[in-house]
Amino acid sequence: MTLHRSCDNLTRRDFIKVGVLGSTGLTLASYLRLAHANQVQPARARSAIFVFLGGGPTHLDTFDMKPDAPADIRGEFRPIDTNVPGIRISEHLPNLARCADKYTILRGVTHTLAGHELGTMYMNTGSRPIPSLVYPGYGAVAARELTGDRDLPHFVAVPTTPQRAGYLGVRYAPLQTNAVPVTGVPFNVRGISLTDGLTVEQYERRTRLLNDLDQTFQGLERTSNLVEGLDQFAQQAYAMISSPRARRAFDVSQERAEAARPFGETRFGMSCLLATRLIEAGVRFVTVTMGGWDTHANNFNATRNTLLPQLDQGLAALFNALATRGLLDTTTVYVTGEFGRTPRINERAGRDHWPRAFFALMAGGGVRGGQVLGASDDRGMGPAERGFTPEQVAATFYHSLGIDYRREYHTPTGRPVMIVREGSIIPGLFRN
Questions:
Q1: Rounded CA separation 60/359 (Å)
Q2: Would you list the domain boundaries of the chain?
Q3: How far apart are CA 22 and CA 3, in angstroms?
Q4: What is the model's pTM?
Q5: Which of 87, 212, 257, 398 has the highest CB neighbour count under 10 A?
Q6: How far is Cα of residue 35 from the mean position of the Cα atoms in its chain?
Q7: CATH T-level assignment (fold) for domain 45-187+251-418
Q8: Average pLDDT over residues 76-96
């Protein structure tokens, strides 16, 4: 797997190391325990896809261009018309230009955290990070609040995610695929498909043996929230490993060729295809992470030749496929990075970190497509007026899912914490 390492030396593997099933004897239940134990270390949608553009995508070269600004700000790209009169985006996003009626562009999203890790935590939770508490990511809150089928994971990350369960506990952590599908090859999340000849019956026998051994430790487990969460993973493991429905959902090779073709064969495109299949199967929350946006040097070559074509093809295919399958109205899609990039181009033909103004996209779940809300100033330095805070976007995202963002949770120590503090719903985003 390609690693995207940002300038502050954080890898885009997103904090998880996993074992290998099969010959090592690591069961799926054990894998889930390891992979998820980060704490040891109006119209309403039914599901959501969160697309995270890790590294900080440039707003001025994508969805918030400034063609009338000086050359050292406007850059090398020109805007093109979309299928919505008056909305223009980068020339290197032609597929997204043709489906601009399906999403809203939020311009002037703003905060003050210019480091990758802090900005990432902020934009993946809607809560400004503090040293004393790990806030749950969007997917963890959705896994707690939205009911789902027992034989499907409620929160899946493709391939990984920086979102953590935080104070909600390990039971709400994501199932991370830790890999991306390859065209024409059956895709098996480690352990969901039985490998090396292991049958469901053999798995059941192993599970019964482990259950017998577990009786020894019942007294300790009664008071352990962590063990309670891990036990849930064992139950989830069995439900998934014995469920043909779950295995079919993850197997993109079953997708019809004509339906898969628009996604292309890039890692991001195949991740979007998998996300579409998972939502169609009934998974409630999926994250897709695309790294590589930390363009301090050669910004225009990197975005022109690699990043924008991949984003354009995969994301447009995602919007169109959800619409074609009748899923867009019931699935909210939220696309963002941890921040934007400097309006002024540096001496290495790059753009540096810039949290004062950047973009987000929202679609589905009652969102009115084909519009731009908010604005940055004439050079993309900051919001033209007040801008949108991460809390506002988070509150709006939760609202689309029917989750009360003002709901109060309690940490294991009894500390009361609102899902989103100081949030508010963005006016004009939703259809009446």
A1: 9
A2: 45-187+251-418
A3: 25
A4: 0.85
A5: 398
A6: 17
A7: Alkaline Phosphatase, subunit A (3.40.720)
A8: 98
